[in-house]
Amino acid sequence: MASVRKLERHQARTAYLFITPTMLLFLVFTVIPVIMALYLSFTNYDVLSRKDWVGFDNYRRLLDDQLLWVTFKNVFLYAVIFVPFNIIISLALGILMNRAWRGVKLFRTLNYLPTLTSSVAAATVWIWLLHPEFGLVNGLLSYMGITGPAWVAQTETAMLSIIMVTLWQSVGSNMIIYLAGLQGVPDYLYESARLDGATKVDCFRFITWPQLRPTTFLVSTLSIIGALQLFDQAFVLTQGGPANVTKTPVYLIYQQGFNQLQMGYASAQAFVLAIAILIFSIINMRITKAEESVI
Amino acid sequence: MKTKKWLMTGTAMLLVIGLLAGCSGNNANQNNTDGSTNAEGGNKTNAKAVELTFWGDWGGEGQAQFETMVDVFNKSQTKIHVKYVLQQDMITKFLTAATSGGSPDILFWDRWRTSLYAPKNVLHPINEYLERDGISRDDYYEESLKELSLDGNLYGLPLTVDARALFYNKKLLAEAGVEPPKTWDELADAAAKLTKWNGNKLEVAGFSLGDVGLFNMYLQQAGGQMLTEDGKTNFNNDQGKQVLQYWDRMLNQDKVYKVGFEQGLGEGQDAFVTGKLAMQYTGPWMLSTYKKYGKDLDFGIVPPPAGPNGDKASVMGGFGLVIPEGAKHKEESWEFIKWWLANKDNALLWAKTSLNIPGYKPALEDPFFKDDPFWQPFMETLEFAKVRPNHPGYSVMEGDALTPNLQLFQQNKQSIEDTLKKAQDQGDKLLQDNLEVK
What we know:
Chain B: GO terms for molecular function: maltose binding. Chain B: It comes from Paenibacillus endophyticus. The structure holds two protein chains of two kinds. Chain A contains 13 helices and no strands. Chain A is mostly helical. Chain A folds into two domains: about 1-40; about 60-285, MetI-like fold, CATH 1.10.3720.10. Chain A is flat and about 70 Å long. Chain B has helices spanning about 1-45, 60-75, 90-100, 115, 125-130, 140-145, 170-175, 185-195, 215-220, 240-255, 285-290, 330-340, 345-355, 365-370, 375-385, 395-410, 415-435; strands at about 50-55, 80-85, 105-110, 150, 155, 155-160, 160-165, 165-170, 195-200, 200-205, 280, 300, 315, 320, 355-360, 385. Chain B is α+β, with helices and mostly antiparallel strands. Chain B has two domains: about 35-160 and about 315-385, Periplasmic binding protein-like II (D-Maltodextrin-Binding Protein, domain 2); about 165-315 and about 390-435, Periplasmic binding protein-like II (D-Maltodextrin-Binding Protein, domain 2, 3-Layer(aba) Sandwich), CATH 3.40.190. In chain B, strands 2-1-3-14-6 form a five-stranded mixed beta sheet. In chain B, strands 15-7-13-16 form a four-stranded mixed beta sheet. In chain B, helix 9 (about 215-220) crosses helix 10. Helices cover about 45% and strands about 15% of the residues of chain B. The model of chain B is unreliable at about 20-45 (pLDDT under 50). At the A-B interface, helix 1, helix 5, helix 12 and helix 13 of A face helix 1, helix 3, helix 16 and helix 17 of B.
């Protein structure tokens, strides 16, 4: 008995030893900066000449900052469409790619490729594809007799373009996560279900989907966080335009902090964004609530 | 089990907040590495020479152009040795360097930033040097000095000046039988004649209305000003209306352009190069690109057409060289700047090397500029071009309040009155919010 406890202690010590470097880096580069940013959000810090305590001034200013709320509305709209589609498409791809077809590995690779592309480079290529007169997308549409819109330049379609491009880029990696999840579903569940006369739909509904709950939780949480922090694709594709419909909070925070040197106010904006992400993550947790642990 | 979930969400959140703070952490690291390389460079050169660091964010060809000047300077004397250091994301690095002792001695400076940075005491005034060395302000465009000044102090000298003028495709104009326009009416007429539609498809746009940021220029051509003396927006008036009515005439009645027509076309597909755009406003920075196409692109340039009452206007921009307050060798830095920007031969060498219009006027007397059909229209334009207003919130006002509303107007989603009113309300607020910089 004593030797078992000794072994456990030894294992615990080794474990702590192994996670120490990571936790130290996490502490130095994340936890401490976050605490400092919280402090700065109560100051008028501008990096160069001042750092005076201003109390809740920055947070009061937030309430009256119409543009900030416009950007929040934009990313919420984006998230509401992006997150469900992201889950549906990557799950569908995962199920397709989980079969033992010949050449399935090639298709897995092809589906994963967009993820490997730099988001800025990909967005640049998409701008060409979406060009109103000479782009491939409108070219294909015109064969069907449809005059395509000026995708990234029109207020109606600008956000849609960003959703398409980001979906194209993110379903690949989520497909891999789902693929791993699917391969972790034990075969005996399907076997016994089939013995009981379950159809394919039943199998998906009562075995695959519940078994994938932890995976779905992971994918949805990551997409929500990613969606609310949307920046690079929106910046390259539309520069926040037209008419501010694709401007995002991160874009605004960057501008306020690094271009206008109002770091204090930018920190306050960043905290509001963080709280919004927390709220949405909690809602997501409630929705994908499992009887069992998800981790 | 539940706590684990919380832990995960909490961790995710921390990662998010780390976003802002994380950025500055990286920069601090970067600066350390830069510092050590500089020290190494110093050992190699003559021990007596004062080592100066010159920061810029031009890489590639621009870096080679800077280094040409630096080399000539280093060879011209033995007391000072300058080294060009390419800094990607230069301004962000300067922010940390300015306060932590790693400041460069000379900084390549986008002039419009002066109104935001000068009040924070990170730039060194050069008035005294200028007077002591008898350098005349008249040798520079007054407007370019204005952009480098605040409260009677001058913070640097202009390195380049630029302004937009009207580029036109000679072949397309000859085919349509129109002359390069001199007034708003002539411009609109010419644009209408040059435009070609094929059903719903715009094949040749007569004139580009893609850059709503040029509103500033149009407003001055109509006789208006962007800001009032006391720093409020000044376009919700008759002049502003005239500009939008003029745009409406070209965009909706004559249909000389289509929103999004040029968006995202790279250099090879530039609509002006491929003959899909007959006329556009752009600056001298496009000259070398367009000249590359030789006979395939026969183009000319004229100063911007005058407004309804004959007002001429263009917006002047460009770069300068400044000395940060944290520089260790200000006198020597000034020597370098003076050598480059207050000497006819060197300013001309710079102009010919980089194909930029130099900020030092005597250099422009050279036939290289005066007798060149491509440079000459810009010389003419610079005589009346004005810089953007010296207000720390100006660019935010333009980008976040004016541009979005103008885009709604261009897409027929907002009337002229609403556009100007909303741009005014939102713009005044942004100007106010970004006014305090001390």
